[in-house]
Each structure stands twice: as structure tokens, then as C-alpha cells.
Amino acid sequence: MLKHWYEEYLRLLKKVEAEEVLDLVFYRPLAFLFVKAIYRTNLTPNQITLAAIFAALIGTLLYLKELLLWAALFLILYDVFDCADGMLARLKKNGTSLGRIIDGFGDYISTAAVYLVIGFAFANKSANPLFYWALTVLAAASNVFHAVSLDYYRNRYLDYAFDRKPTLGEDLEEHKREFEKLKSKRGHWLAKLLYKIYFGYSKLQSSVASAKNKKQTKIFEKNDFLKRNAKLVKLWTFLGPTTEWTFLWISILAGRVDVYLWGLITVFNLYAILIYVLQIYTDSKTIKIN
């Protein structure tokens, strides 16, 4: 049975090279066990997504109350649930277009809540609140920069690995089809609002992607690209949300959120620059077919 579960767990991963190490060895195994436990219940992926959001919000409130151990535990629970919703959708084959949008919004809500609480619970109580508020904003901006960079290079790698169209394009068309179906129905105002917000965000994201494509129109030879980027994409994953989220709850447990803020701004940003330079060099050496 253990062998069967392990094989089933591996099938739920997009591609091992593109997964964060901490996800592979900690959060996703816990999420998989949780999903197996609730598989035969009526719980849906969207309900697990909402549970993840509530876990993150409860964790931030507990941090406000200086209950550091419980805050860390709920932040861990958030990450487990955040992995579990997609796993449950793939196992039950009941994932929806709206569910993926809700999952994305959940990540934004949870991350925003964390930085606001750091500002109010840590920066405001420090000897120099203005300085630490600025530090919090810079750390939040660094977090966004890391997440966007990882998403871009990981999705580019997966596009080549699975011979798929750019992820944003495929998802956007599916979301538009589902929205058209929803428009003809009464009610569902919240779902319609989420779709509209997503379309606005996608438009902005597409304009950024178009600007990148104008600068880089080369298409790489698939096998050479995958060979050269297999290890590099793994290096990118160390800038992922799970890695930084884990750094956060460890810093909370230690009572040193300032270490987390400085770490993102210095160590993680220097690492991002180093990987970016290595990526540019790798791209320059990769065989191009046009």
C-alpha cells in the first residue's frame, strides 16, 4: 500500500525539478495524507482553499496576540491546506476554473495579511516604527519580485517540458469561457466579480509578458533547453513562497521577525540576482532554432 501511495503522490506533482524542496519533503506529503483522509468526504477543493485562507488569517491574529507557537502552527497549516486543495482537485477530477482563481486570490490575501500584521505588531512597537515600516514594505516588494520571477522561469520550463502553450494564454481562454456561461445566470455576483478582477490582472500581466517577448523572441531547442535548465529551475525554487513562508514562521518562533525582513531584503535578493545572471548566461549558451 505504501508503494501505491508513493506512486500516487508522485503523479500529483507537476515535475519534481520544478517543485520547492520543502514542498517535496514536508508540506506536500502532509497535504497528501490529509487529502487521503478526507477523500471520501463531501469536502471540496474550494472549501480547502477557504480553510487555507482562514488558517493564515488566524495565524496572523495569533501573532498579534504574541502567541508565537500557535501563530507558527497555523501558518504551517495554511501551507499544507494550500497544497491540499490542488491535490484534492486532481484526485477527484473536480477542479474548476473559478477554483484556480480563488486559490490565487487566497495566496494574495494571506500574504498581504502577513505583511500588514508584521507592520502593526512589529514595526509599530519598535523603537523606530517608520524605519521598520519601510523595511516591511521593502520585504513585501522583495517577496513579490521573487514570486513573479519564479513563476516566469518555472512556467517557461514546464511549457517546454510538456509542449504546452504559455500557461496564461490557456488559462485565460478557459476562464473566459466559464465566465460567459456564468453571465447568463442570475446571482453569483461574487464569482463574477472575481472573474472581472482576474481579467484585469491578466491584462496587466499580458502587457508585461508582451514587453518581455519583444526583447526576447528566440525559441530554444527543447532537449538542450531542458538539459541546461533542469538544475537551474530547481535553484529558482529556493525563492518560492513555501521557502520564504517557512523562513517566516521560524523567525516568528524565534521572536525575530526583523531577521526575516532583513533576510528577504539582503540574502534572498542577492541570491535572486545571482540566479538571474546565471539564467541569462545559460540562455545565451542554449541552442536556438530561430
Please, could you describe this protein's structure?
The protein is mainly alpha-helical. It has a single domain, classed as Up-down Bundle (Four Helix Bundle (Hemerythrin (Met), subunit A)), CATH 1.20.120. Helix content is 81%, strand content 0%. The chain contains eleven helices and no strands. Helix 2 packs across helix 4, helix 3 packs antiparallel against helix 4 and helix 9 packs antiparallel against helix 11.
Which class do the helix and strand fractions yield? Answer: mainly alpha
Query: Helical region count?
Result: 11
Q: pLDDT below 50 for ≥5 consecutive residues: which ranges?
A: none
| Rg estimate, integer Å | 20 Å
For the termini, the CA-CA separation is 49 Å
**Number of individual domains:** 1
Kindly report the average pLDDT value.
Answer: 84
List the helices and strands in order: HHHHHHHHHHH
Quick tags:
globular, 11 helices, Four Helix Bundle (Hemerythrin (Met), subunit A), 290 residues, 0% strand, mainly alpha, single chain
Quick summary:
With 290 residues, the protein is mainly alpha-helical. The protein has helices at residues 2-11, 21-38, 45-64, 68-92, 97-123, 129-161, 167-183, 189-215, 222-236, 241-254, 257-285.
Map the helices and strands:
Layout: H1 2-11, H2 21-38, H3 45-64, H4 68-92, H5 97-123, H6 129-161, H7 167-183, H8 189-215, H9 222-236, H10 241-254, H11 257-285
Helix pairs in contact: 2-4, 3-4, 3-5, 4-10, 5-6, 6-9, 6-11, 7-8, 9-11, 10-11
